[in-house]
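ok new one. same drill as before - structure tokens go in, u give me an amino acid for every spot. 424 of them this time. try not to just spam alanines like last time pls lmao
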């Protein structure tokens, strides 16, 4: 959509269905995804600045603010706010700067902070979840690294990447009528969480923080081997440990939570997919008796995940959302969200592997990298996982007290113990 005012050309972009849905999530938290990249040395500031500028062409919405009345992305007048360099101090640490926020209405929807240390830099990337999910964010990071490398190779490089399809409708492209009908007629089981399952955290009284715990390569290798012997994946192992520790934390034997799934794997033509939100959920639910062996829980959860992976039922929600998106005026659709969608209080997300062969900034080696999801407020809680070079980083961002931080750290330690005991 283009508007002309006072002889100046101003470009707006219609918000897509998932953009609007993520905006609804703002009722409980700020929908942001973050990445911390620790370099072994210093990055080239000007090359990075050029790469960031070029990357905007792939998803011009990042340079915009969301107009809540029209549900359109409107060009921001402050593109320079996207990138800055800050010296590392006791006050300005990478850990604090990673928790920086974004003004969704004014934009931009992307913030990159290069924290300059004496010996090495740390890059903190903050992305609006209104624009893209974890899968899209990883693709953006790969694009940024590629542009940085090409700019480093050629000072005259200025080729802008192409913006691709961000619509939910692309999910059905290439599917036959019978396949589409099967998706529409699916009856996925809704996720129901009793308040007794909510973690015993104080929240709100404190300030934002995030907790990290790294499962080292030898631990992850043992987890993978044990899971394979039971016909389960590494993610099944993590889900099982998460469910069992959640049972112990809350005292509830029935544990139920969503497990996000990247719908890009269902696309018939993945190459045409742009940087966007493309996530649905599987349902993880289990009765876990006290004293139940880890393997028993694992087999139950793994069977659930395997069955859902073989089905396209998880596409029904997004497809129905897309139908409503095209049938209803934006204000009506926004008003419907609280009635037709619920935001899970307790959740888990495995953002997957950060590909070290694609996340390459030429001339600057990476020490490690991981992603952090939205800062949660009581009673909401989420654990996320990212794998880099054979090591899995568990993170949880939360707004709470020092005691909350201690409890969340204890939760992660207990999860690792569950895995350690299981694999022997």
């Amino acid at each position: 959509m283009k508007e002309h005012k006072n002889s100046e050309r101003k470009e707006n972009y219609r918000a897509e269905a998932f953009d609007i849905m993520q905006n609804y999530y703002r009722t409980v938290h700020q929908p942001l995804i973050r990445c911390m990249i620790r370099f072994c040395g210093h990055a080239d500031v000007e090359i990075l600045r050029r790469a960031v500028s070029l990357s905007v062409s792939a998803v011009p919405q990042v340079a915009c603010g969301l107009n809540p009345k029209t549900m359109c992305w409107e060009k921001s007048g402050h593109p320079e706010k996207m990138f800055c360099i800050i010296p590392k101090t006791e006050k300005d640490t990478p850990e604090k700067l990673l928790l920086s926020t974004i003004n969704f209405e004014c934009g931009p929807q992307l913030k990159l902070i290069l924290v300059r240390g004496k010996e090495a830099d740390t890059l903190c990337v903050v992305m609006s979840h209104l624009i893209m999910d974890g899968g899209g964010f990883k693709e953006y990071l790969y694009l940024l690294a590629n542009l940085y490398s090409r700019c480093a190779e050629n000072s005259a490089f200025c080729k802008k990447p192409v913006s691709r399809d961000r619509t939910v409708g692309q999910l059905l492209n290439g599917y036959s009528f019978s396949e589409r009908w099967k998706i529409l007629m699916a009856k996925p089981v809704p996720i129901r969480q009793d308040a007794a399952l909510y973690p015993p955290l104080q929240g709100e009284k404190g300030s934002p923080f995030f907790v990290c715990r790294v499962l080292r390569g030898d631990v992850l290798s043992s987890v993978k081997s044990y899971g394979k012997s039971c016909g389960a994946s590494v993610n099944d192992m993590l889900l099982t440990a998460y469910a069992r520790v959640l049972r112990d934390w809350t005292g509830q034997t029935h544990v139920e939570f969503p497990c996000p799934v990247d719908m890009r794997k269902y696309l018939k033509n993945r190459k045409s997919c742009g940087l966007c939100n493309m996530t649905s959920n599987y349902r993880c639910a289990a009765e876990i008796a006290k004293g139940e062996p880890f393997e028993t829980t694992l087999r139950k959860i793994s069977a659930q995940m395997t069955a859902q992976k073989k089905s396209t039922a998880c596409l029904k929600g997004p497809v129905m959302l897309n139908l409503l998106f095209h049938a209803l005026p934006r204000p009506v659709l926004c008003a419907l969200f609280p009635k037709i969608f619920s935001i899970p209080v307790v959740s888990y997300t495995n953002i997957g592997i950060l590909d070290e062969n694609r996340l390459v900034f030429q001339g600057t080696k990476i020490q490690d990298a991981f992603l952090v999801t939205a800062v949660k407020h009581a009673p909401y809680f989420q654990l996320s996982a990212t794998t880099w070079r054979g090591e899995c980083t568990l993170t949880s961002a939360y707004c709470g007290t020092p005691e909350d931080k201690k409890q969340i750290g204890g939760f992660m330690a207990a999860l690792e113990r569950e895995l350690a005991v299981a694999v022997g």
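The first strand starts at residue 2 and ends at 5. and btw Residues 1-9 have pLDDT under 50 and may be disordered.
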